Amino acid sequence: MSRARLSRRSLALTAAAVTLGATFYGVGAATADNSVPRSDKEIPNLTDVVNEIKAYYGDTVDASGEHFASADSSYARQLAGIEAKATSDLAHALHKGGHGGHGKPAIVLDVDDTSVITYNYELEVGFNYSPASNQAYLDSKNMPAVFGMDTLANWAADQGVTVFWITGRPESQRADTVRNLTAVGYKSAPDTDHLYLKDKVNPPAYLSCGSTCTTIQYKSGTRAHIESLGYDIIGNFGDQYSDLSGGYADKSFKLPNPMYFLP
Ligand SMILES: [Mg+2]
């Protein structure tokens, strides 16, 4: 994704603090929000948080030092519950036939931490994403499928549902993304008609925000485009709320991700 995460988040927090300071100056803004802790005790200890994340993913390490999430982890169990609900909802929509829309049924998946797990990469870079380290990682390794999402997507395809991916990854990561999705068990073709990456250099004409789209504008605008092609998106899957906001999906499913937040 085009996520200069920490810097963007820091900027947002700074902007929020400035706004609050201006609006509530003298009222004690620090008590009205949590952006400025008064004590270190109000801040989760970073080492503890990382250890909690590793426990949640059921951290396992192979002989070469690569970290993996475990299939019997809390993460996998939480996913299984969401996927069971989603499968039931999708089956119901397909059975009803109308599925509230007027087109060919489709689902949309985000890529990172929705279709494939970034956990090993995130640990490798200390949760500090950079385009360069991410590109180097994708060039040399595949990320494993998010537990159960390959099964869900393949099941949907077997029911006649068209599978689309919309990712914030840049267009330059198309080949790596196609290779990875195919290698880890996604049977629907992530071809150019079904895998949308963010193209800031030559943005598609249907995105009126062009090269300046926010994630929500880019993703919802691309879903609108898909529906304009005659599809009805009966399910939209993402690990970030910005994957899911903005409409153009009958149902949205939020997958867990305690590792980072993307506006
Ligand atoms: Mg994601």
From TrEMBL:
Alphabetized, the UniProt keywords read: Signal
Report the SUPFAM superfamilies cross-referenced here.
Answer: HAD-like (SSF56784)
InterPro entries hit by this protein: Acid_phosphat_B-like (IPR005519), HAD-like_sf (IPR036412), HAD_sf (IPR023214), TAT_signal (IPR006311)
* Pfam families according to UniProt: Acid_phosphat_B
Would you indicate the residue range of the signal peptide? Answer: 1-29
Q: Spell out the Gene3D superfamilies in the cross-references.
A: HAD superfamily/HAD-like
What PANTHER family does the record point to? ACID PHOSPHATASE-LIKE PROTEIN (PTHR31284:SF10)
- Name of the protein: HAD superfamily, subfamily IIIB (Acid phosphatase)
